[in-house]
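User: Drug Metabolite transporter superfamily. Structure?
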Amino acid sequence: MRQDGDAEAGAARPAGCAFELEDAPPPPRPWWCFPLLAAAVLAVSSAGAVFQKMPDVPPVTLAAWRLQLTTLILLAGAAPQWRAMPAADRRRALSRPDALWTCFSGACLAAHFGAWVASLKATSLPHSLLLVSMAPVLLVCLALAQRQPISAGEVGGTLLALAGAVVLAAGAATGREGAEVTLRGDALAFAAAVAVVGYLQVGSRLRQYQPAFVYAAPVTGLAAAALTLTALVAEARGSLVGGDRHGVFGWVASRAYAPFVIWLGTVSGIVGHTGFNTLLKYLSSLTISLAIQLEPLFGPVIGWAIGVASAPSPATWAGGAAVLAATCVVLASAARRQAAEAAGRARRARSGAAEGWGDGGGGGGEGGGGGVELAGGWGAGGEPAGAAVHAREQARAGGGGGLGTAATAAAEEEGGGETARLLRGGPSSA
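Assistant: Predicted structure:
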């Protein structure tokens, strides 16, 4: 990751060495990295249990409450980032194609939260957390469908995860795990995982040039608006507050609900998700992704501790262990494959650049231009090298870049590799 002094370092390189920009060492790791990582894991793990502390609130209304407050916080962070963006990037963000992608991402996020909160009311907390955490496995399935390169470890991990999901579903279908576990609830949690894949896919496209808050604020705002309107029609029957404080903005006037919603918006949303995005500057995205997979372990424990969840059954332990192990295998296998692919691309680029310097005599004429064109050919979507480097710098400025290693940078620059990048991608800011 480039920090102070990078300009001088870049000036010392020949023009054709543009591909070496990402080989610079990451910045020094602050002392607070791992304390923040632990706090972020506990913060996101608490969300499911806190949702269950409001069992009488309808699910879509509850999901809308969560995103309403988060939107306000994200807008405060998006304003300075928007002003700092280049004019060309601001115009691109407002263009019709990217505006439509933003709307689609917001719809996916709304579906994710709506389905997940509904699942918390229809199945056990362990089942819901385990199944909603299967997004990395679903991304492998999507990569297979798109015929993208996939390693044997990723395929094996996916099969193991599917076996674990079958064990969980069997326990729900037969009723052996009690009345709180239902097949409908498990299906809603799985649907929430499917919806978040669409959100991540669009994010991989737009975050190439949009800072974290600039991307997350409108997406989260659109999702909050969609859930609020749905709840207003389907659950609140036109009530904004409601006598029972179950209106679409009822939490604002409720002493009972407001503390929980504030916790979800600030602790789970900011300390948790934004904390993960901050740590991507100092820790590998694989480390962050594996830490997120601790949520299905800590979440049920927190729920049991505050009295909203019972101890998991043996079937939940067995199926859950398979799902968690499979997800970790998928993430680690994807990281190894991407590192190998990145190393191969770097070798080919260095070889091609060396040939370009030889043909051009190492000067600033045609040979130097050949080196720049080589780096430009790596840009995602056919962008020139300058645009690709600028996109990475903008991502870092937003605090959610996660591009500190040469392997991740090369994987990001490989055209058509959104799914592969997401297998190591960081959490959303929502």
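Confidence is low (pLDDT under 50) at residues 1-24, 361-430. Residues 33-338 form one domain.
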